[in-house]
Amino acid sequence: MAYLQRTVDQELNQLLPGLAAIALDGAKGVGKTETAERRASSLFRLDSRARRTIVQADADVVLRAEPPVLVDEWQLVPEVWDVVRRQVDADPTPGQFLLTGSASPRPGATAHSGAGRIVRLRMRPMTLHERQVEVPTVSLRDLLSRPGTAVGGDTAIGLPDYVEEILRSGLPGVRGLAPRARRAQLDGYLRGVVDRDVPENGLAVRKTEVLLGWLRAYAAATSTTTAYARILDAATPGESDKPAKTTGIAYRDVLTRLWLLDPVPGWVPTNNPFTRLQQAPKHHLADPALAARLLGASEATLLTGAGDVLGVRDGTLLGHLFESLATLCVRVGAQAAEATTAHLLTRDGDHKIDLVVVRDDGRVLALEVKLAATVSDRDVRHLMWLRRSLGDALLDAVVLTTGPAAYRRPDGIAVVPLALLGP
Questions:
Q1: The domain 7-122 is classified under which CATH number: 3.40.50.300, 3.30.450.20, 1.50.40.10, 3.30.420.40?
Q2: Half-sphere exposure of 319 toward its Cβ, with a 13 Å CA cutoff?
Q3: Rounded to 10 degrees, what is the CA torsion of 309, 314, 316, 317?
Q4: Which of 20, 34, 108, 116 is at a distance of 20 to 30 A from 86, taking alpha carbons?
Q5: Is the peptide bond between 68 and the residue preceding it cis, with omega within 30 degrees of 0?
């Protein structure tokens, strides 16, 4: 299969000429190794037992290889991190090391964070732009850098296509498979996380089915701020002997270290014009396809509105999965534009903004996600409230839809089909 350019390729092209070491973080299967290997002269695959044994015996072996040196799954031999850090201290020549990791090491596994020596980049599953389902006509970077920039373009991508993309996954090795093989691969991926990856990362799970149930409950809470206590309770319905709260925290922590959970934090502005904001994260798995598979969702069930969402009473499961797909697309573009992504929700729930992309100077781009082809005045009421609240600090406001065309409303709010949004 031909390599499809990733947005993080642009970031690596910009950073490698000036940095000695870059770590590419992300869940298994997102394409880290293939992307990094294209830039490496030497490769150490630490998921190979034989290669891992050599590096465990002498971690300095990576210093004797021809640069750029790629250390794949470096967290399996955490000593490599400290070796690379010390080498960068001694010789900051750019382009020496690439490290890829499918898990963050447990606290204390490395002697130093690597801050200032090893720059970390997050790699996520493929966005719609990276999947080449459509040629984007609206740039997230332009929306962030040129407020009020013109938007336009048409697409034939409709609701059934978005459903297909949710189910096909953004994992390169999964999305090309036939439907039954794809479902089996996603099942195997999830079972591998529960049976192998979680224990390897320090959490002994007595009942793996309880952890799998927790993951299903988390999937049902996609795109919501449902309390973790409620997720844990929903994981074991009807059982009197519920797991302790600390068990749920342990699940959350280890699955976050595995990059499988990708929550969006609540936005806390530096100069806060708001007095009552929730800081609870909005829940997302790394790939909406994993959430759909955990919940047994199919094209037929999603299109008919079936499926329950944990913690909310409005919206369909498809709506929440579509928001998760939109969140993936926005976060990848935001990172490339050196911006961060959050969400906004007031404590009483009377105002919410699905995604807030924040520049270094604190000015923001606000985006709402709507599972519909048309946008009404009611659909933009939260964006209009935010505009009144922030004034010039609001760069632009956008509604992401399943519609056929990108345009600006008379009130200035941009309406953009998700398929037309690019980095």
A1: 3.40.50.300
A2: 18
A3: -20
A4: 34
A5: yes
